Amino acid sequence: MELCNCIEPPWPAGELLMKYQYISDFFIALAYFSIPLELIYFVKKSAVFPYRWVLVQFGAFIVLCGATHLINLWTFTLHTKTVAVVMTTAKVLTAAVSCATALMLVHIIPDLLSVKTRELFLKNKAAELDREMGLIRTQEETGRHVRMLTHEIRSTLDRHTILKTTLVELGRTLGLEECALWMPTRTGLELQLSYTLRHQNPVGFTVPIQLPVINQVFNTNRAVKISPNSPVARLRPAGKYMPGEVVAVRVPLLHLSNFQIHDWPELSTRRYALMVLMLPSDSARQWHVHELELVEVVADQVAVALSHAAILEESMKARDLLMEQNVALDHARREAETAVRARNDFLAVMNHEMRTPMHAIIALSSLLLETELTPEQRLMVETVLKSSNLLSTLINDVLDLSRLEDGSLKLEIGTFSLHTLFRETYNLIKPIASVKKLNFTLSLSPELPEFAIGDEKRLMQVLLNVVGNAVKFTKEGSISVSAFVAKLDSLREFRAPDLISIPSDNHFYLRIEVKDTGLGINPQDLPKLFMKFVQSQPTKNSSGLGLAICKRFVNLMEGHICIESEGLGKGSTAIVIVKLGIPGRSNESKLSFVHKVPRNQVKPAFSGLKVVLMDDNSVGRMVTKGLLVHLGCDVLAVGSGDECVRVINHEHKVVFLDVSMPDVNSFEVAVRIHEKFSKRMDRPLIVALTGNTDRMTKENCRRVGMNGVLLKPVSVDKMRSALSDLLEKGFFVESK
Amino acid sequence: MEIVGQLQKQFVDFTTSLYREGILDGQFVELQKLQDESTPDFVCELVSEYFQDSEKILTNLTTALQQQVVNFKVVDDHVHQFKGSSSSMGALRVRNMCIAFKSLCEEKNLDGCLRCLQQLKHEFYLVKNKWETLFRLERQILEAGGAVPFVDYRFY
């Protein structure tokens, strides 16, 4: 034994087994070194390997294992201690690393496995999404088709176009061989072929509506596959091999009344049309679900479009009808207007034409009565006169009444004195009553206001009529007229609903009672009194219209008129109630007592008349000038006599000289004016304005050759009449 | 339109009171008739002219009556002028005062004249005040958008 510090191998060196071990160790080492290399190479290639540090660990383990086996090669022969130490180190390290790796793999391998499962899961998901994408795409396609179809269908309001377009577009979108629409006939018992796609002229086939296949289709709102042999589908020439599949769908036909907001399309009158769609024959095509859905949607849209078209048609018809009616109404209105105009023209003409001869007759008859006549002749003439008076009154009444009837008569409201009204009536009737030896009394209640607002003329007419009647039909006895303010209860007894307004501050009800002891009236005839042209008794020959007109007037005055009588021979009482306004206690709208002077009615009668005015009082000058300007004159106003004489020329027609001026002797001015104008023609007329009424002034004025004297202050009316007299006659006389 | 109604009523009441108290007479009514669309300010201008003229006359009267030796003819002339213009305007009380004044002048009663002058001034300023109020009321009505009612004195 040598002291080489060597370690003896465990077995003899020359054995075969050792050789094999040697070779194996070599190859193991080789493999162990190449595996990490491969790993590194491949991991470098893949970018996503998550566990790099695992690799490092694994690599280390493998490398160390390899190193161990490599170093083992040296231990087969005699080897130094160093080699043994290296070997041992390598083995120790390897042991450590491999243990660590083993421990770590316990953690890692489940993770790696789960990666795999996740991968599988993702793959499945991707496949699912693909499927769904496919579905959505198909749906989108369908939607696009529907939108396009709808657009086409709804872009027109013409029924025919809608249906035709539907069929064409459907045919195109779905690639149909034939598409047909069956509409219900008017009777509703049959379906008639109305539109087809390919065959241009549908021959007007009809099928009864009660077929089971049709019922089946009508009972559901889905598109239904039907047999190609059913009557509605037998549209193409038979032949070829295999007719394509056929689908039918109902198309609701809606009426205006069906549009309830919440339950469309539940239909009350179930009228449907049938749309039949046929796929091309000899193609193996089948109806897909999305195509069926498309068909259903289109059917609904067509229904809506058709209903819109129907609404439009109806509204056009209604509009045409309205226009026709408008034209007719317009025509009628114009005719009515023409008629009214014609009537008014007639009335206006006849008014004048009728009255003139009437007046002539009456006037001449009256004159005739004044001459010498035999009793017979006198009687005849009296009758003529009476009849013509009657006729005249009748004519007036007719004209009045026709205006009253059509409401064109308006009351002329104004303020008037009640006392004056009654007094005048009394004065008019008294002579007649005296002649007939009747006692005639008038009594006015002290409560009656002095003034009232109403139509004085017409109220007088009514009063005269009523009182006149009383006098006419009373042979002996008395007539009494009394007027007072009506109390509310007395108004109520007339149970007139229009008399409900309570007398207020603005108005009151005037009640006039005319009692007579005359012939009386039969109670049966009372209602007929106020009717036109009704003669109640042979003795009564009042103009048939008098009371009727009175009633109309009284109604216009919101009042009431009636006649009471206890019977024939017992006299009668006429009661008139009218509504009158009270002046002085009213609001703006009833301010009629301060009526506006109709300023524009005063037409300047002397427009452009050139005058000169002389007055040294500036205020008085302004006043007179304003007055003359208001009458339309062209006024030159001067303040002194000299100026007056200077400015006056032949254009001036009138000169007004104020005679009350103390300084100026206006008479002298007048003389000078006369001297200025030698010719009488050119001379202006001279008028004196004076505040003095004494005779001296008037004498002086006349002596100087003035053409008139006006007393100041001069009112508009006085000036107007003075001027017109002056221009007409060359002078005027002042009337007090 | 409540305000307009009230203003109009106020106006009417005021105007009628003027007539009733005799401050104005029918001549003023006539003057108002002379005013129309072509002369919308006729009355107003006339009244202003009257005020100016009257002030002048009153000043002259005061001066004339303050002279050492009073010339009653001159005074009478002034009063005559005043009477004329007042009666043209319808200022009744002023006019009547002028008539009284004239008779005092004829009597050459200086004290009476001085007293009358005072009264005349009083009456004049009264009517002036009333007219100014009247025009103010008219303006208020017009500004409120209403129309000025025409008051006919004959009913009072």
Automatic annotation (TrEMBL), chain A:
A GO term, aspect molecular function: ethylene receptor activity
Cofactor: Cu cation
Cofactor comment: Binds 1 copper ion per dimer.
Binding site for ADP: 469-472, 516, 532, 543, 547
Catalytic activity: ATP + protein L-histidine = ADP + protein N-phospho-L-histidine
TM ranges: 20-41, 53-72, 92-113
4-aspartylphosphate PTM sites in chain numbering: 658
Pfam families (alphabetical): ETR1_N, GAF, HATPase_c, HisKA, Response_reg
Highest taxon of the lineage: Eukaryota
Binding, Cu cation: 65, 69
Gene Ontology biological process: negative regulation of ethylene-activated signaling pathway
Subcellular location: Endoplasmic reticulum membrane
Coiled-coil region: none
GO cellular component, one term: endoplasmic reticulum membrane
Residue ranges occupied by any Response regulatory domain in the UniProt entry: 610-727
Keywords: ATP-binding, Copper, Disulfide bond, Endoplasmic reticulum, Ethylene signaling pathway, Kinase, Membrane, Metal-binding, Nucleotide-binding, Phosphoprotein, Receptor, Transferase, Transmembrane, Transmembrane helix, Two-component regulatory system
Sites of the Glycyl lysine isopeptide (Lys-Gly) (interchain with G-Cter in ubiquitin) crosslink: 712
Topology versus the membrane: Multi-pass membrane protein
Stated family: Belongs to the ethylene receptor family.
Subunit annotation: Homodimer; disulfide-linked.
Protein task: May act early in the ethylene signal transduction pathway, possibly as an ethylene receptor, or as a regulator of the pathway.
Name the record gives this protein: Ethylene receptor
Automatic annotation (TrEMBL), chain B:
Gene Ontology cellular-component terms listed: cytosol; nucleus
Protein name in UniProt: Histidine-containing phosphotransfer protein
Keyword Nucleus: yes
Primary location group: cytoplasm
Post-translational modification Phosphohistidine, affected residues: 80
Keywords: Cytokinin signaling pathway, Cytoplasm, Nucleus, Phosphoprotein, Two-component regulatory system
Residues annotated as domain HPt: 39-141
Function: Functions as a two-component phosphorelay mediators between cytokinin sensor histidine kinases and response regulators (B-type ARRs). Plays an important role in propagating cytokinin signal transduction.
Molecular function GO labels: histidine phosphotransfer kinase activity; protein histidine kinase binding
Domain of life: Eukaryota
GO biological process: cytokinin-activated signaling pathway; phosphorelay signal transduction system
Written domain comment of the UniProt record: Histidine-containing phosphotransfer domain (HPt) contains an active histidine that mediates the phosphotransfer.
SUPFAM superfamilies: Histidine-containing phosphotransfer domain, HPT domain
Species, as recorded: Penstemon smallii
Compartments, record wording: Cytoplasm, Cytosol; Nucleus
